[in-house]
Amino acid sequence: MVSLAGLAGSVQIVVMPTDESSQRTARRAMRLSLFASFLLLALKLGAYTLTGSSAILGDAAESVVHLAAVFFASFSLWLSQRPPDANHPYGHSKIAFLSAGVEGAVILAAAVYIAVESVRRWAGGQMVTQAGLGMLLTAVGIGINLVLGCALLRTGRRHGLLILRANGRHVLTDAWTSFGALAGLGMTQLTGRPWWDPLFGLLIAGNILVSGYGLVRESVTGLMDQADPRLARELEEALDRETAARGVSYHALRHRDSGDVHHVDVHLLFPDAILLRDAHRLATEIERAVAAAVGSRLQITTHLETAGDHDHIHPREFEL
Questions:
Q1: Ordered structural domains, the chain, with CATH
Q2: How far is CA 230 from the centre of its chain?
Q3: 71 or 10, which is more confident?
Q4: Which of the four, 34, 134, 174, 229, has the lowest number of CB atoms within 10 Å?
Q5: Which pLDDT score, from 0 to 100, does residue 37 have?
Q6: Beta-ladder partners of 13
Q7: Residue 266: in which H helix or E strand, if any?
Q8: Residue 111 and residue 133: Cα distance in Å, rounded?
Q9: Are 239 and 286 in contact (CB under 8 A)?
Q10: What is the C-alpha to C-alpha distance for residues 93 and 258, in angstroms, rounded to an integer?
Q11: Could you tell me how far CA 18 lies from the centroid of its own chain?
């Protein structure tokens, strides 16, 4: 019989979304987002044509940007659902972070454009026309965005899809943008002072700057494999509990987010005399228990070691 002393191996357990129903749900949500984006853009362009409002112009410009971002997000969703291949053995889900970054970047560009245009119109003292009809069309757009944005966020969280969550946040940002345009038109209508409209245009620009920055930041942290403190705490608590219950210790815990699955690597230290068969069984039990305890989709890889010769085989200068 072979003992584990001097040997190391790795075993994996995967808990990730592979069911076709989840993928169909995600694709359906993205198609709905595309349709709604076209509809909202048409509403806002119509409202701008009627009113000449700088706030509505900013709202429409944000929708143009959003439509382009949704096209890229749709492509990213399709690519992320492709299975791993020889060139991408870890799959394609990391495209989600690039998608979020692109969406955030175009939001930032839209914010700059809205701010510049609002200042120009404020300086020119341009008047708003047919404000009532413009307010009605804008209110309809707000309702559509609120329903769609909440649905995308809920679906993205349920299925662990950053692409849908990012798109949902962008849709809700669009709703706030429309609300700002509506408020600008309302104040202009109530007071008869045209500067309310570009003022709200500037407020809209500031709001979407914050949203765009958040998406870009999430994209950068994901692409740079920044660790999630919440996940780290959950993994450590689960590993502490499961290894202690089996007389095993662990170290060199690492994890990173690939968009729809978290990759986890950890070294397990066993007693010297344990059989490889028994160590493999215990490692698999630990992996399954940790995956069940942590509320994220995981791909866990464990490296099996023995405590007696660990320091000799792995000098401490190479430890994490």
A1: 10-15+228-318 (3.30.70.1350), 20-223 (1.20.1510.10)
A2: 16
A3: 71
A4: 229
A5: 83
A6: 300
A7: strand 262-270
A8: 25
A9: yes
A10: 6
A11: 19
